[in-house]
Amino acid sequence: MKVIALTVLLTIAQAAPPVPRKAANPQTSATQNIKDNANNNQGPSDAHPPLKQQTKPAQTQDKGQDPSDADARQTIVIRESTPVPKVGKDWWDKAYVIFTGALVVIGFVGVGCAVVTLWAIRAQVTVMAQQRQVMLGQLRTMQEQIAEMSEQTDVLEKSVAAAQSGIEAGINERRARIKIKVSDVHMSAVNPDAGQLPTHMATVSLFNYGLTTAFVDDFRARFLHTPQEDAAPDYSNCRQFVYAESLAPNSPPATTFGVILEPNAGFLTENEIMSVKRSQSYIHFYGFVRYRDVYERRRRQTIHIRWTMRWGGTIEGQVMAWWLPVGPLEENQDSEEEKPN
Predict the structure, then answer these.
(1) DSSP string spanning 173-233?
(2) Is the pTM of this model over 0.90?
(3) 236-247 burial string, b = 16+ CB within 10 Å, else e?
(4) Is residue 2 over pLDDT 80?
(5) How distant, in Å, are the alpha carbons of 76, 79, 248 from that of 37?
(6) What does the pLDDT average to over 121-127?
(7) Residue 65, Cα to own-chain centre: how many angstroms?
(8) Does residue 167 surpass a pLDDT of 50?
(9) Which H/E stretch holds residue 257?
């Protein structure tokens, strides 16, 4: 306000002088203007009395002096600006200050909690790092133990395999073993019309040459005259001879069985015998026996043989006829059987 008042006074002081044609009292006019301006700027509650500075105009004898000299010798009154009354704060400002202070307090508390949490996290990180090192050490120890256990397992497996091999070798050495024995074929012609009995049959026996008892579950066989040299066995046409019997080890056969030649019903004529001798027809014997040993191992012994005869001159002591094993290996072998057919 002081600056505004001084600006107004300086503006009035530098205003243009009145026209010379008009008669006026310069002193009275200037004083009246300054008073009017002072009255306009004065407030209702002036705290200090106005300061007056009077300047008496110089007495000149020349009444025709320039009016601008008379304006220069006017009285200037300077007053202080009225102070602005102070207005009290309302409840919104108070609430703003209170909430701002509360936010500051809350901020400090939050920062403190964050610092405490950070220190706790750092402590946990340190503990976790230590635990990680401990766990890594335990992991290395476990890996070493696993490696040792793997080596021990390999050694144990080898020991078990060796033990099983030894057990199997012992069982295989002492188990029962059955052999199917078939007698030779007497090739002599038979005339059924003359009342002669069938003579073409195979005498069969079972022999246990093992060291323990054999328990026979089933024995089937077939004696066949056929034009096929490599006839495939048809076990479904075999005839059953033994079931649910036992054979002592290394004992002579207690029972023999006669298997009649098919399809001739045990009769061969001279021409049929000659066809066998000339390898124009063939005589086959095949069959199987199922048995168990004392170790409850189920086994199956198969047999497939063909009667073979030598034709021509004979030499004393020379074998002229014999049984010849024929067919693949599984038709003449002793094998373990898990599920009997």
Answers:
(1) HHS--EEEEEPPP------GGGTPPP--EEEEEEEE-SSS-EEEEEEEEEEEEES-TTPPP
(2) no
(3) eebeebbeeeeb
(4) no
(5) 11, 10, 156
(6) 91
(7) 119
(8) yes
(9) strand 256-262
